[in-house]
Amino acid sequence: MSPADLPPFLLAVAFLIAVHEWGHFRMARACGVKVLRFSVGFGRVLWRRVGRDGTEFTLAMLPLGGYVRMLDERDGPVSPTERQHAFNQRPLRQRAAIVAAGPVVNWLVAILMFTLVAWMGADVPKAVLGTPVPATAAERAGIRSGDWVHAVSSDGQSWDEVRGLPELLDAVARAQALREDLYLNVTDGQGRGERRLHLDMTAPADASIGARVLQSVGILPYAAPLVSSVKPEGPGAQAGLQPGDRVLAINGRAVEDAGQLRSLIRAAPIDDVAPQSLLLRIERHGQVLELGATPRAVTENGQRFARLEIGIGAAPERVSVSYGLLDGVAKGAQDSWNLAVLTVRMIGRMLVGEASVKNLSGPLSIAEYAGQSARAGLAPFFDYLGKISLSLAVLNLLPLPMLDGGHLMYHLFEGLSGRPVSEWWQQQLQRVGALILMLMMALALSNDVARLAGWH
Question: Where do transmembrane segments lie in this chain (predicted)?
Answer without folding.
Answer: 6-25, 97-122
